[in-house]
């Protein structure tokens, strides 16, 4: 990938319309149980995804994003080095 679009995957839109979702209690319980099951399977498969990340990925799939493209983005993000925090001035030697 090139310079400015390094973190942008061509199959994933850069912004999505976010609207509040209100569910009836039965639908909310079913959604929670489904997420619990998906998270349990994720742990068995040792994906390393936390519950929140898995929830976001499922929501993106529900919005119509391609699951294979999302998986590619997750894999790519895992291979990128984690940025190091700059040293604070308190830990820097004073000349």
Report on the architecture of this protein.
The protein has three helices and no strands. With 95 residues, it is mainly α. Pfam families: MOZART1 (PF12554). Residues 1-21 are annotated as: Disordered. It is found in: Cytoplasm, Cytoskeleton, Microtubule organizing center.
Query: Which structural class fits the helix and strand makeup?
Result: mainly alpha
Number of helices: 3
The number of distinct β-strands equals: 0
Outline: extended
Which features does this protein show?
3 helices; single chain; mainly alpha; disordered N terminus; 47% helix; 95 residues; extended
Short description:
The chain is an all-alpha fold and 95 residues long. It has helices spanning 25-44, 51-62, 67-79. It is built from 3 helices and no strands.
SSE inventory with pairings:
Layout lengths: L24 H20 L6 H12 L4 H13 L16
Main location: cytoplasm
Family: Belongs to the MOZART1 family.
Keywords: Cytoplasm, Cytoskeleton
